């Protein structure tokens, strides 16, 4: 970056605010919908599989298109992709708010996911571009960017509870529109990042990746309805595996793959990637279950259920805000390890959940889980960005977030399947999901200790 280009870049606060708005709306729509699930079910007379699709249609589109969006950012310029994503997300949010039936809502949720897939890797690439030559400033900027998104994700149920109580569940989508407008306007001051890569767009890779992951998630969601022994379930699993194999073959043969295999030669990169998947899969799936638990088992009204999630917001904000200083002082290894210990401890606290658990007993787990995740995620993100060349920052960001969102969709599908069957099933799913999350966290811990050697 030459001096002239650097002088034309916006200030620290402007850059962080602009890019963070994209992360805020994208993460808000991961969690805000959870609190509205009972209201959506009533409005459309929907069962739990439909509710899973309302959540996963967004997460799935987000996940399967992010690799291509990251490549497009590197090819066409991250600013352009960022702005297009903002427009798509805003229009899709209006469609969700006005949806007359469940099918329309799910289709509009897919469109939201497309917009989010374009915004997230491009926003992080814009941030990385501005602060590429000042690693400590980049660490602080990424910490604040992560804090904004994490706080939005954690605050989603609380905001949703208030919107539902004082207006309608439809406003949980309408609230995105002014944020998208503001982010789009602010983005014009960002640097005009033009083509940074000579790679071509990998259409065969995108199609096979999309079909493989979509088939897998569809199968998991439909297991409770069709049964594990159904021919469509086993056929779908085999088909997903075959298409994924084809995807890997295509990526190995094409001259310009959307998934550059050379990135995976690094044990550090792989460990951080798996860490992201574990954190999102456990968190997304658990929030889905806990939303049902609070409203269906403990019988909290929507506004009380939303307020019950307030410690998640507080935990994320506290840990994300301090994480930048911690990473600059101790590196990424120690914050991740401490964060994982806290993450697992929080899930262990959920084993106390039963039909009449006082909220005070749930408060500490609800606080510790996001604090652990909020400590680990900025360190993980900085580790990914620092491990690749700047020209591949959009692709690397997309790979990380693809792994996270795909795992999140799988978490909702798997944990949601365990909750199918009424109050007792939901209650059992809380303990089962906590146990699975602890096991996955322990696995991630081993990989981090091995992959991030001193």
UniProtKB/TrEMBL annotation:
Q: Which UniProt keywords apply?
A: Cell membrane, Membrane, Transmembrane, Transmembrane helix, Transport
Q: Which GO terms describe its cellular component?
A: plasma membrane
> In the UniProt record, does the keyword Transmembrane occur?
yes
Please list the residue ranges annotated as the Major facilitator superfamily (MFS) profile domain.
15-454
- Give the membrane topology: Multi-pass membrane protein
Query: Where does this protein reside within or beyond the cell?
Result: Cell membrane
Residue ranges of the TM segments = 12-37, 57-77, 84-107, 144-165, 171-191, 203-221, 227-250, 271-294, 300-323, 335-354, 366-385, 406-427, 433-452
- The protein depicted here goes by the name MFS transporter, DHA2 family, methylenomycin A resistance protein
Q: Which family does it belong to?
A: Belongs to the major facilitator superfamily. EmrB family.
UniProt keyword Magnesium present: no
PANTHER family this protein is in? MAJOR FACILITATOR SUPERFAMILY MULTIDRUG TRANSPORTER MFSC (PTHR42718:SF9)
List the Pfam families hit by this protein, alphabetically: MFS_1
A GO molecular function assigned to this protein is: transmembrane transporter activity
